[in-house]
Amino acid sequence: MEGDIAQLGQYIGAGIAGMGAGIAALGVGNVAGNFLAGALRNPSAAAGQTATLFIGIAFAEALGIFAFLTALLLMFAA
Amino acid sequence: MEGDIAQLGQYIGAGIAGMGAGIAALGVGNVAGNFLAGALRNPSAAAGQTATLFIGIAFAEALGIFAFLTALLLMFAA
Amino acid sequence: MEGDIAQLGQYIGAGIAGMGAGIAALGVGNVAGNFLAGALRNPSAAAGQTATLFIGIAFAEALGIFAFLTALLLMFAA
Fold this sequence. Notes:
- The structure is a homotrimer of 78-residue chains.
- Chain A is mostly helical and 78 residues long.
- Chain A has helices at 5-41, 50-76.
- The first copy, chain A, is 82% helix and 0% strand.
- Chains B and C meet through helix 1 and helix 2 of B and helix 1 and helix 2 of C.
């Protein structure tokens, strides 16, 4: 058995962090899903809530990007 | 097999903490999703609850940033 | 392979504790999300429940901060 054991940790850690990016999609999906459910029930109000939709998506997406950033840092910077 | 086994722990730990940042997106998504569901049912009340929306997002987002901070500390400071 | 195997445990443990901070965001999101869902259904009652909203957020947030504190202690004090 050869190789640097610290690299083993980097790659396993990057994979776990990448899973976090995927989990964040559940949060984004909850925002967009609730928007669509409401917009299709009351289409006349949907245009007024588009800004809120993007705010909610942006904050949830940011956390998923942080998880992806952790994976990138583990692979290429740590 | 070579390398410092403590670094293995730092990198795997950073990945797990990065996953935590992604999980926090579920909380943010729940806040924004419920806001949108309610705002589209009762658009006239939505403007009055915008402050609460941002308070809820801010507290949930803060915990996700703490998790990301844990990942950064593990990679570069611990 | 070199290094202290106890440090391996400290760092992996810190990562798992950091994930706990992210999971606590689910609780915060549940409090704020349900407040918003109810406040938009019955806006006139929302102002009277703002104190309860902050109590709920504070207790859930405190547990997330405890998890983050556990991660910091594992990295720098244990």
